[in-house]
Sequence to fold (482 residues):
Amino acid sequence: MKLTDPDLLREQAYIDGNWCDAISYDTVVICNPANGRPIGKVPVMGAAETEMAIAAAEAALPEWRALSAKARGLKLRRWFELILEHSDDLALLMTTEQGKPLAEAKGEVTYAASFIEWFAEEAKRVYGDVIPGHQDDKRLLVIKQPVGVTAAITPWNFPAAMITRKAGPALAAGCTMLVKPAPQTPFTALALAELADRAGIPPGVFNVITGDAVAIGNEMCSNPLVRKLSFTGSTAVGIKLMAQCAPSMKKLSLELGGNAPFIVFDDADLDAAVEGAMISKYRNAGQTCVCANRIYVQDGVYEAFAQKLAAAVAKLKVGEGIAPGITTGPLINSDALAKVQRHLDDALQKGAKLLAGGKPHALGGNFFEPTILTEVDASMLVAREETFGPLAPLFRFNQVDEVIHQANDTEFGLAAYFYGRDISLIWKVAEALEYGMVGVNTGLISTEVAPFGGIKSSGLGREGSRYGIEEYLEMKYICLSV
Ligand code: ADP
Fold:
């Protein structure tokens, strides 16, 4: 990997403005999922180092909180600019440790930076409220204050954006933060810390710690100095963390698993629906929590849609993300590959038909062929579990109410999509879908200006938009007797 700025490859954790080794000096080697080659090593830290980082975040809090919103916003703005200036290096780091195609990695860097930019601006708009008093001598005020020290645990599928989506609002609100990135993708996180340092974010305000997820997570959840945890990852881990945070009553944001339905009605623009399905299903090799997991196609257009989708899938180019023209990188590891295979085998055994792909890619390793299954039904694993891979299962439906019921028949409620043109149908379906986000005639809904998040087992809270900063603020009511 040839970085223009080699100092962006950091092999130590970033605590209190210093680059640190583990107390034990233990390290772990991180490998490229596309070819298994080592990239570098990072410290294996645990509870003791986490406690130190929390203490640093606590010590940095009074000064950071006391800065004017504009002053904090200017530092964040500088961080945003530096991220963009180094976007080529950040994208290369990301592709090397995560596997996504370079063009997608560049897109993620821009997306990640946009959260810092947005919240740099929002810092100045943390408004309070004045409420007409309930008695002659009373004036009632509401002010918003930062929650304090915050912790973030992030996943590997978006190594930059899942961090900035949390750190942006936290720092803008006047909180300090400690981040534990996913073990697979520490280098993007550490490069972001290097750029935060260069941007003049003071020591202790933003910290990144690598190592033992369980030990670090335990300390983050149990340490009373941490007032909020923001987690993006699986529902199973989210539930554990929520329970661990209960004794110290922490504020929580949880962005968990999804099982997104993608519905194509008879009157849909089929070419647009195929384009949306391609983006929603195959982006990041199917490894996003908002990826279409179940594609429901109405009887009248089922065959036509399937054929058009197969033609689009035939154009995908699988390979190492750094090579030109690649659209589909490797899966993150062999477990991810095994899950796709398990979903595929289960569906085929229960009567689904293979329309495209259907096996590990000839490149070997963690590569899997972009796959389409038809005649999929609710008895199959793919109907209930998130595949998190390049497998598109096509379900057939006839009635609108039937598909709404099927779409909602899941514990998850993150993103849903549908394509149709009848305006009354659009309104009815958009309201009926039990999801935090609904894309209508589009397969791409993520933006820093809109509230991202789910309901049911997909989590709590929203990230991005003007609502995102509220997650890092406490409301204080002041009753003033005059
Ligand atoms: P995935 O299956 O996508 O890796 P996880 O929920 O396992 O999703 O991981 C998301 C993040 O949660 C990662 O940073 C991982 O290290 C972390 N994590 C996993 N298990 C725990 C745990 N018990 N305590 C704290 N963090 C955890």
